[in-house]
Hints:
The chain is an alpha/beta fold. The chain is 31% helix and 25% strand. It has a nine-stranded mixed sheet. Strand 6, helix 10 and strand 7 form a beta-alpha-beta unit. Helix 8 packs parallel to helix 10. The mean pLDDT is 95.
Amino acid sequence: MVDNKSPYFNPERETLTREGIEALQLERLQATVKHCMNSPFYKKRFEEMGLKPEDIKSLDDVRKLPFTTKQDLRDTYPFGIASVPLRKCVRLHSSSGTTGNPTVILHTQKDLDEWANQVARNLWMVGLRPDDVFQNSSGYGMFTGGLGFQYGAEKLGMLTVPAAAGNTLRQIKFIKDFGTTALHAVPSYVTRIYEVMQQTGVDPRKDTKLRVLAIGAEPHSEEQRKRIEAMLGVKAYNSFGMSEMCGPGVGFECCEQNGLHFWEDYYIVEIVDPETLEPVPDGEIGELVLTTLQREAMPLLRYRTRDLTRVLGRTCPCGRNHIRLDRMRGRSDDMIVLRGVNIFPIQIEKILMQFPELANNYLITLTTDNDNDNMTVEVELEELFTDDYQRLLDLEKNIKRALKDEILLTPHVKLVAKGTLPVSEGKAVRVVDKRKVYQ
Length: 439
Ligand code: ADP
Ligand code: ZN
């Protein structure tokens, strides 16, 4: 049993010193690499590289290991990377696989138990205790946000409501009737829940007991988080997960809200230059590369996540010395290249959210008009003030100017009525690319 008054779910692991973390990592890395020799995929890779598990003598030797990519997962679909026989596995999750083969991740019972521990640790870290009621408004099924949070919240001991995504009126009814104090949802869906609360006269501060939100699974800006906190009167914590690493539970903000603690007893974290694949100094943006340290069914070595972030620090006032990473900019493949300029949707969101006249939903469309590539940003207005045409024009002008300062291009800006842009119940689609491709 965990001591209810302790700020830590797993005090021994969470409060390790840096030396303690690194010693544990080396031990776990060596064991992981040995275990990977049971995987036909890694065995072959190691043979090709002339590498032996005994060559890993220090933590820095992680750089001798081969990278693993999403393409490797696709090429070995469905079970080719596994390091245990299939009969030892009890679950699989799979990504959507819109391009080519989907990717499959296998889990043993031990993997599932550890995954639940990771999620429970995160939820405990932000003050949730067995008395809380946890509602999970994320998709269930293959998407790891469903079962991942379910088992983690149950492990902590909370009454856990598997509400799943969608049916917003019912979500709100559950929040009220069950006395939900904590909610997990993707940020764009939280906004939707709030809008429906407004339409149906529910005041989240008076009519609900909500106090903590876990938001994640998609990139969002600090400004978006602040809005969510202000709308619902809660604390919202950024949650990072990816199916390849288990799902939610990989990284989570503590109460300091100063970046995401990535759990280094479970992963080795590297940030590399995506071109040279060499490590970048702390503070510089690069691609996040993760090596699993506790996985049984399907350990992954130096997995290239394609997520871009940077190291913020390795200590924290909360007493945890697990590395702190900045919120994700997005994946390298989310980056828009328009007229030679690199732009992340999150940069646009950050600017839009600074205008109180604007609501939270927006859509970026890229088109080719008369052989020129253009960007149109449609954004919903908090309130319609069509009668005041001058005010609309001024607002549009100010948004364009602020966007130009941030992304160095002036997009078209279209102000639209609230509720007119599409809302998804899963991860939000923020960019539609209709540009002509010239061969
Ligand atoms: P899929 O690959 O089908 O989208 P995943 O759930 O595995 O399914 O997605 C993981 C990805 O989601 C991460 O690599 C990252 O790009 C994004 N992601 C997850 N959590 C966050 C977060 N808190 N902030 C930004 N991006 C996130
Ligand atoms: Zn902390």
